[in-house]
Amino acid sequence: MAELSTIARPYAEALFGVARADSAGLAGWAELVSELAQAAAHPDVRAAVTDPHLDHAQRIELFSAVLKSPLNAAGRNFIELLVDNDRLLLLPEIASQFLWLKNRHEGSADAEIISAFDLTAAQVADLVAGLEKKFGVKIKPTVRVDASLIGGVRVLVGDQVLDTSVRARLAELRDALVA
């Protein structure tokens, strides 16, 4: 079976093309795509839209009804396309790829910074400056605390991981001693 990312890619690219040409702009579409993905990821919605007793029109109406934002014509067409092709549940992966395309277009990247302790604004700013220099893009950080790291930070930028945590260092030491 094909990877979900492979199946989702053409939909994300098509949606990105529509979003770039639309007057609502990429930011507006990114918000809508994020909302669509959140709705599609909800277990109750997933169960409802996969009900075999519903036809395509009912699935479209049901899914549209759970959204907070009203769908424009292009958004509704996109939902109809996904329902017709039985791809509605791929929305979280489509949204992830859409966001990646948006960030690449804007020359930015999302970074998840995981720290063992709370970071000050100055520490985050210094870390972001270093990451921007390393990756050559504007970094949009999300910071969270994970005490299991013991110390240090773990940074995820796209598919790259920079792990300077004490937990990672201890794991390396353990692996070296076992080898």
From TrEMBL:
UniProt keyword annotation of Transport present: yes
Keywords: ATP synthesis, Cell membrane, CF(1), Hydrogen ion transport, Ion transport, Membrane, Transport
Subcellular localization, as worded in the UniProt entry: Cell membrane; Membrane
A GO MF term: proton-transporting ATP synthase activity, rotational mechanism
Keyword tRNA processing included in the entry's annotation: no
Main location: membrane
Membrane topology term: Peripheral membrane protein
Purpose of the protein: This protein is part of the stalk that links CF(0) to CF(1). It either transmits conformational changes from CF(0) to CF(1) or is implicated in proton conduction.
Annotated protein name in UniProt: ATP synthase subunit delta
Top-level taxon in the UniProt lineage: Bacteria
Species of origin: Pigmentiphaga aceris
Family as reported in the entry's similarity comment: Belongs to the ATPase delta chain family.
GO cellular component labels: plasma membrane; proton-transporting ATP synthase complex
